[in-house]
């Protein structure tokens, strides 16, 4: 089974060709980051326009890299949601056109499922497992009992973890996106310099990062008011450490309470190698196994959509040309028509 997959949920135009759910034959990703960086975040209308301008080029480049033609493709996969509606529509229109023209299945994929299945590109974690999905829009703990059977155990009650990184970076005028720049800045800082709160540490499996964000901003304001030099590296390191501590604590708690020894951490924030290093060490001490996708597949990409589509066809065998985009699709939503 050779699947051509398209991902246009936010600010990356991506295409990948995946064989049998494990072999990546070729992939292309065109990032809009440098454009949106001027505005401090993604501009939806601009993102949609840029997807429209680049989608055909990205598809043809991927076919060339794979040394394949459209006639070699067995199915088309596309992100259905969640994401920006205009951006999703560009990918869906291209995918439907190809699928109908070639008379092959159109597989609509939940973007969040894609992040979870991105791990399967290089590893094969045994089910059941716990998935920690962390990105700019999501912070969730999910119990994956078997393929495409998800139970949401906990989620953020306010800001997603990636969103908190972006807001702190914006306040410190470090640029966008916040995650990479804060991690890099934190390398020169002391993570114990400031005692920022670890919110909801003992309250179930939900998260809250709004209070942490406010505490960091208030600390910066207090330093400004007292005319003191702002130790940006120390602030970044202390903020990042507070985030890492709570993510590790909640993930371990979820694994223990459900007697599961395998945890996946995925999503854009999983590209933070300080987080992955500390989680790996903490889980090893507890006799648990941590899985994460390769660094280049942590953020949005089409390979994860192709891999998820493969398992989706294998375990659900459902597809339809009538699929429409669903910007608010949740992790447990399986309706694709």
Q: SSE layout and pairings?
A:
Blueprint: E1 2-7, E2 12-19, E3 23-31, H1 33-36, H2 44-66, E4 75-81, H3 85-102, E5 106-110, H4 111-117, E6 129-134, E7 139-146, E8 149-155, H5 161-171, H6 178-186, H7 210-225, H8 232-257, E9 262-266, H9 273-285, E10 289-291, H10 303-315
Most strands sheet: 5 strands, mixed
Unreliable stretches (pLDDT < 50, length at least 5) are none
Question: Average pLDDT, to the nearest integer?
Answer: 94
User: In one word, what is the shape?
Assistant: globular
Number of separate structural domains: 2
Helix content: 40-55%
- In the CATH hierarchy, the third-tier topology of the largest domain is known as Nucleotidyltransferase, domain 5
The CATH homologous superfamily of the largest domain is named: ATPase, nucleotide binding domain
Terminus-to-terminus distance: 23 Å
Instruction: Determine and state the CATH class of the largest domain.
Output: Alpha Beta
Q: What's the total count of β strands?
A: 10
Number of helices: 10
- Roughly how many Å is the radius of gyration? 20 Å
State the CATH architecture of the largest domain: 2-Layer Sandwich
Question: What fraction of the residues are assigned to beta strands by DSSP?
Answer: 15-25%
| SSE run | EEEHHEHEHEEEHHHHEHEH
The secondary structure category is: alpha/beta
Strand order across the biggest sheet? 3-2-1-4-5
């Amino acid at each position: 089974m050779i699947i051509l997959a398209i991902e246009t949920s936010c600010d990356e135009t991506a295409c990948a060709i995946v064989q049998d759910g494990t072999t990546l034959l070729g992939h292309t990703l065109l990032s809009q980051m440098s454009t949106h960086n001027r505005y401090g975040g993604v501009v939806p209308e601009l993102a949609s326009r840029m997807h429209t301008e680049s989608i055909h080029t990205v598809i043809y480049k991927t076919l060339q890299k794979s040394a394949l033609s459209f006639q070699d493709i067995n199915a088309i996969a596309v992100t259905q949601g969640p994401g920006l509606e205009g951006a999703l529509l560009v990918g869906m229109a291209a995918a439907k056109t190809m699928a109908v023209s070639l008379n092959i299945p159109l597989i609509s994929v939940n973007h969040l499922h894609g992040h979870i299945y991105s791990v399967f590109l290089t590893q094969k974690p045994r089910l059941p497992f716990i998935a920690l999905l962390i990105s700019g829009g999501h912070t969730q703990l999910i119990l994956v009992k078997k393929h495409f059977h998800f139970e949401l155990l906990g989620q953020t009650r306010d800001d997603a973890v990636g969103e908190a990184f972006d807001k702190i970076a914006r306040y410190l005028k470090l640029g966008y996106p916040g995650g990479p720049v804060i991690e890099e800045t934190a390398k020169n800082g002391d993570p114990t310099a400031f005692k920022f709160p670890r919110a909801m540490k003992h309250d179930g499996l939900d998260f809250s990062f709004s209070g942490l964000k406010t505490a960091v901003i208030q600390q910066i304001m207090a330093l400004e008011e007292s005319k003191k030099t702002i130790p940006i590296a120390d602030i970044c390191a202390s903020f990042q450490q507070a985030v890492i501590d709570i993510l590790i604590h909640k993930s371990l708690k979820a694994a223990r309470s459900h007697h599961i020894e395998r945890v996946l951490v995925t999503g854009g924030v999983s590209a933070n190698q300080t987080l992955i290093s500390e989680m790996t060490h903490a889980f090893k001490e507890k006799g648990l196994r941590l899985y994460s996708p390769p660094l280049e597949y942590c953020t949005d990409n089409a390979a994860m959509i192709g891999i998820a589509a493969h398992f989706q066809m294998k375990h659900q065998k459902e597809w339809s040309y009538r699929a429409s985009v669903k910007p608010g699709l949740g992790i447990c939503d399986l309706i694709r028509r």
